[in-house]
């Protein structure tokens, strides 16, 4: 669903995947395989020190956080909202 939203709204929405955890807790080969197998084309960033995880109070995965232009959290959930257009 996130990949579909990336394709559909690329001109109005930036999507970034965040991979939390230090290098020893994330298997890069498995991560790369998942990205390839799912055909993810939006950027994936590593949160090795968990600073983003703490900043956005991520409790589990998946966790979707939408920010507005002022960088305020306007949505939080484990899936994309039913009507993503309402947040654009």
Q: What is the strand tally?
A: 4
- Which percent bin holds the helix content? 25-40%
Average pLDDT confidence is 90
Order of helices and strands: HEHEHEE
Could you say which structural class the secondary elements and strand pairing correspond to? alpha+beta
Query: Can you summarize the main beta sheet?
Result: 2 strands, parallel
What is the number of helical segments per DSSP (H or I, 4+ residues)? Answer: 3
CATH superfamily: Glutaredoxin
Which runs of at least 5 residues are low in confidence (pLDDT < 50)?
Answer: none
Query: CATH class, anyone?
Result: Alpha Beta
List the strand order in the largest sheet.
1-2
**CATH topology description:** Glutaredoxin
Morphology call: globular
Could you say what the CATH architecture is? 3-Layer(aba) Sandwich
Beta-strand content: 15-25%
